[in-house]
Design brief:
The chain is an alpha+beta fold. It is built from 25 helices and 20 strands. Strands 1, 2, 3, 9, 10, 11 and 12 form a seven-stranded mixed sheet that branches. Helix 8 packs across helix 9 (about 310-340) and helix 21 crosses helix 24 (about 645-665).
């Protein structure tokens, strides 16, 4: 590192920041720093961010000692307006020069899109980095936005938690500023629970090592690996930990120096379902559940304390006490739920509101039952109607159970467990859990047919009901997770009903809604808005898979003519389109069909009635006769290929038909004077277009 290039460091030391706030804050810090350095012309190497629960850190490698010199061209009046007839500078030129601190003679001439203009070349020397940082660092801190803020001192500064110290360094030099009553300096505090003494940071590049020596692992990536290593080392004598990446991520922002502690709970609690034990242990104390060496759920669990391994017995005793109390509660809830039975909960759903404008959960379940029976019949699935109805009616019953009331994460899971305990067949019981699947946009889909139908129906009902009262997603707002429901619905249809249409089922779902919902003014065109929403989702999915916008629109525009049909055929069609674009003169195909579309649009504008069928007797020109014969032959073959999903062959037929269309346009006057001949020729072009109308929209191709 040369004398001219140094590293910079900003640490914001605070009281414990909520774990969920930290990563968004780091992203904002990095983005603001990059923007600020670029705006100031400050060259730098890498930008890194670190965080613990008590500190947010920005580290900048190889930050130049000053910003780059700037050259700016300021345009003035035109050359013609700059001098009078005698060649003297006009007041306009004199005023422009004076405004920029120079004389007219020193101005240059610049050619612009508005002609030759007087130009002042303004040169600004770069500013020292330490001066720039005295503004940039405070602005970074001020521009971190959190979901909730605190105000704790008289200046009224807002931050997630009270700021207690600030490190601001450029090389060895402290960058001086003050925020929220805290002056920037070169010291910070170590591990809060153990050592509150000040740690002096002499150079930014020594920060991570000095902090680690004081039991603070500031690098969150290093700390995450330390958590995993400590947990796995601690558990290996008794078995293995049940992996939970989300729990690791959460703990990572709850500790600064992780140490795993092996704990136990009373074996009597092993009578609780493993799913309930896992959630209870995780939620009560952020602990990992443990399997024994035979892979069976054990009465061990792992907690992660903040600090070194001393005082483990005291920590263990505390953890075991908290977890034991929560497990005792869970045992009480579980036994109560088993006594009451799952079916007894159905009636209680009448008291649970799904949405104040839509109705209760019980009413939703009744609608879902109607939709599942409709899907079963529409797609000839042959699922036992009684099993299907039982699964639907029990699907939400655990929502009023004591266990799910306490641990919402167990909805569906407890329903499955309670159903099995009461002797209900596995397929029905599993459907209670799986009808919530997929839990995330890319999560696992339902594995049995009953669950699949309920999941489809549940999501269709939620979408139709919300759209009917005007609650569709807008911008980034989607409080009812309807985008996720839409993506899940599309995935299930693509995998299980790739060539079928769910349009009639979606339309029918609107009829099942309560009268007050159907009377809502926003319900009038809700089904069409919902159809559009589905197509927006499928197009977004396809774009995320790397397909070009034009390719997607060419296929989806055509597919929309059949509403919600054939979601599962879209990708193969796009792949075939890509393949076809490499053959022959395919680029000219879109122009040919655009011309056909323009003629048809012109005919519609002129109120020309287009016959449904071509009258062969009215065909007189050899070119139109040839196109008619060839198009009939192509249509027969295209229909066959489409039914067999042979999309490459369909595009081959497009290429075969093109010469006949070209010949038609070259030799035939479509808008003939004879009205019947004109209409017949338009009908011929319409029939050619319709061969591929439900397959590809050539006008969308560039």
């Amino acid at each position: 590192m040369t004398e001219q290039i140094k590293n910079a460091l900003l640490e914001i030391g605070a009281e414990e920041i909520p774990a969920s706030y930290i990563e968004p804050a780091l992203k904002q810090i990095e983005e603001f720093a990059v923007k600020s350095f670029n705006n100031e012309g400050l060259k730098y190497g890498a930008i890194k961010t670190y965080a613990t629960p008590r500190r947010l850190v920005l580290f900048v490698e190889n930050l130049d000692s000053k910003s780059s010199d700037k050259t700016e061209e300021i345009l003035g009046p035109s050359v013609q307006a700059a001098k009078d007839a005698n060649g003297n500078f006009t007041q306009a030129a004199i005023g422009f020069a004076s405004k920029n601190g120079t004389t007219p003679e020193k101005l240059t001439v610049k050619n612009s899109d508005k002609g030759d203009r007087l130009c002042f070349v303004k040169k600004t020397k770069g500013e020292k980095t330490e001066i720039l940082l005295s503004n940039i660092f405070p602005e970074i801190i001020k521009n971190i936005h959190f979901p909730k803020n605190m105000v704790w001192e008289e200046s009224g500064f807002k931050f997630a938690r009270p700021v207690r110290n600030i490190i601001a360094l450029y090389g060895k030099k402290v960058i001086k500023f003050k925020i929220a009553g805290v002056k920037s300096d070169n010291w910070t505090i170590g591990l809060h629970a153990i050592d509150k003494s000040r740690i002096k940071i002499d150079l930014p590049e020594n920060y991570l090592v000095k902090m680690k020596n004081k039991l603070v692992i500031s690098d969150q990536n290093e700390r995450k690996e330390a958590i995993k290593k400590s947990v796995n080392e601690t558990v290996k004598t008794v078995g293995s930990v049940i992996e939970d990446e989300s729990l690791v991520d959460e703990i990572n922002y709850l500790v600064e120096y992780p140490t795993a502690v092996l704990c136990e709970f009373d074996k009597k609690y092993l009578d609780l379902p493993p799913e309930a034990l896992t959630v209870c242990i995780k939620k009560s104390q952020k602990c990992f559940a443990v399997l024994d060496k035979q892979g069976i759920f054990s009465n061990y669990f792992i907690d992660v304390k903040n600090g070194i391994s001393e005082y483990q017995e005291i920590a263990r005793e505390g953890y075991e006490k908290v977890v034991g109390a929560r497990l005792a509660d869970a045992e009480f809830f579980y036994k109560n739920d088993l006594k009451k039975g799952l079916e007894g909960n159905i009636e209680k759903l009448k008291g649970i509101v799904f949405h104040k404008e839509i109705g209760t959960i019980y009413e939703k379940v009744e609608r879902v039952n109607k939709i599942t029976q409709l899907i079963n019949k529409e797609f000839n699935l042959g699922i036992n109607a009684d099993d299907l109805e039982k699964a639907v009616m029990l699907s939400k019953a655990d929502l009023v159970s004591e266990m799910v009331f306490e641990y919402g994460e167990l909805q569906g899971v407890m329903g499955k467990i309670y159903a099995r305990k009461s002797g209900i067949k596995d397929e029905v019981a599993d459907a209670i859990e799986q009808h919530y699947w997929p839990i995330s946009a890319s999560g696992k889909l339902p594995e049995n047919r009953i669950a699949l139908l309920i999941s489809l129906a549940d999501k269709i009902d939620s979408l139709s009901a919300n759209f009917s009262i005007g609650l569709e997603p807008s911008g980034s707002a989607d409080p009812y997770a309807l985008r996720r429901a839409g993506i899940a619905l599309i995935r299930m249809i693509k995998e299980n009903f790739p060539k079928d249409s769910v349009a009639s089922i979606v339309e029918k779902s609107f009829e099942f809604l309560p009268e007050k919902v159907k009377a809502n003014p926003k319900a009038k065109d809700a089904h069409q808005r919902l159809f559009n929403f589905f197509w927006q989702r499928i197009e977004s999915i396809l774009e995320s898979q790397g397909y070009e916008h034009g390719e997607i629109k060419a296929i989806t525009n055509a597919a929309k003519t059949e509403k919600l049909r054939s979601f599962g055929t879209l990708e193969p069609k796009i792949e075939s389109l890509r393949n076809a674009k490499t053959k022959g003169d395919f680029a000219a195909i879109s122009e040919v069909f655009k011309r056909i579309n323009n003629i048809l649009a012109q005919a519609k504008k002129q109120n020309i009635e287009i016959p449904a069928d071509v009258n062969e007797a009215l065909l007189s020109d050899e070119a139109e006769k040839a196109l008619y014969v060839e198009s009939k032959s192509v249509k027969t073959e295209v229909d066959k290929y489409l039914s067999q999903n042979e999309y490459n062959a369909v595009f081959d037929k497009v290429l075969e038909l093109k010469p006949y269309i070209d010949s038609f346009f070259e030799k035939v006057m479509v808008m003939a004077e004879d009205e019947s001949i004109k209409k017949n020729r338009i009908a011929l072009l319409n029939s050619v277009k319709n061969i591929f109308a439900g397959f590809v929209d050539f006008s969308a191709l560039q």
